[in-house]
Amino acid sequence: MAKKNQKIYVCSECGYESATWLGKCPSCGEWNTLKEFEETGTSSGKVIKELKPSHLSEIRSSDEKRISTHMEEMDRVMGGGIVRGSLILIGGDPGIGKSTLMLQTCRNLCNDGLRLLYISGEESLHQIRMRADRMGKFNDNLSLLCETDLDLIEKCISNEKPDIVVIDSIQTMYKDSISSAPGSQTQVREATAILMRIAKGLGVTVFVIGHVTKEGMVAGPRVLEHMVDTVLYLEGDRHSSYRILRGVKNRFGSTDEIGVFEMMENGLSEVKNPSEFMLDGKPEGSSGSIVSCALEGTRPILVEVQSLVTRTSFGMPRRTAAGFDMNRMNLIMAVIEKRLGLRMSEYDAYLNIAGGMRLSEPAIDLGVVLSTVSSFYDKALPEKLMCFGEVGLSGEVRTVRSAGQRIGEASKMGFQKCICPEGCLRSLRHTEGIEIIGVRTIREAVEKIREAG
Fold this sequence. Notes:
Layout: E1 6-11, E2 17-18, E3 34-39, H1 72-77, E4 87-92, H2 98-110, E5 116-120, H3 125-135, E6 142-146, H4 150-160, E7 164-168, H5 185-202, E8 205-211, H6 223-227, E9 230-235, E10 242-250, E11 258-264, E12 267-270, H7 274-278, E13 289-296, E14 299-311, E15 319-322, H8 326-340, E16 347-353, H9 365-377, E17 385-387, E18 390-391, E19 397-398, H10 403-412, E20 417-421, E21 435-439, H11 442-452
Parallel strand pairs: 4-8, 4-9, 5-6, 5-7, 7-8, 13-17, 15-16, 17-20, 20-21
Antiparallel strand pairs: 1-2, 1-3, 9-10, 10-11, 11-12, 13-14, 14-16, 18-19
Helix pairs in contact: 4-5, 8-9
């Protein structure tokens, strides 16, 4: 006999299931995250086949060749290319360029002789063709389908047997046996489970496009990110030309790498030298500005750190940070007041990472300190100066990793001086064309700049 449909409650953060509604999830501790949905009945006459586990020594390991997208920035983020049979989630704000990026990827893969199926639930075939015409020529290896019914999509994939499938987007897909509306947590979860079964069962690589919520997470339950093999986020300001592809999860590679693109009329163009791109338009002879170096994965990127310090008009000073952690900024302001004797409690402070980058690496701390001191005294820093280093609560400048790569990037971009932690000097090899200044504290760093004029 078939079981009756029953209502269960699933946590949107961790996937915990409960027979009754609870205000607080017992698993993750979040409040008001249990959502109701109806569980469909299943037949009790299922045949249970006997399974036999395999020993690890019996399993043959093979280094399968990855599929290149012919975009170095995207291949870097995915760990060297696409792994066959993987399920890849690409998230981002609406209109950020997710569909454009995937259509460009399809064009490159079609030229390699791979068969692709692009399934859209948001656009018509005519709209996709209009965007494709702006990008260049496509061959007949790319097939288009406008459908949202998962049963029909699964049947089409089984018949066509493509090498790669693109689903645009997961929020528009639905399954008839589930009573909730498309885009709900239940539908998104079930759709992802079906696509994962297709990817693993048929050996088809599936790209899933997903929109994000106001909190910056993929719309739907958090368990969605745990189900897929790779999670990529396309970030950037819609009103700016830059886009950053960032890996959040990758079962087949590192999650530290980023890819930088620029939105053009004919699609997304790769930015091979992000440092030059981020420093474009840097003002000369202006106080409160210095160049620092962040490390994204294995790639050093030079960014401009801007600070503006003005006397406050209220009893409590304002603190505003764009592209930098607000709590970290407050910590650095307290260190400046305590260790350098500057009364930052009487001044408003505004911090900006030019170019729209969002950085969390502590190596930017020294740049924040020096740009803030420069704005406080309204004295411009030397033009060809770069700095990096983590700042502790005692005002010490602590060692950071990959100092040689950071200095090499600065030398390549024409910088003549670099202020870095003294502890990094031990690991540095001979460097030409750039003067290395090692410091132990932020007070020493300020004094070195004063001596340099």
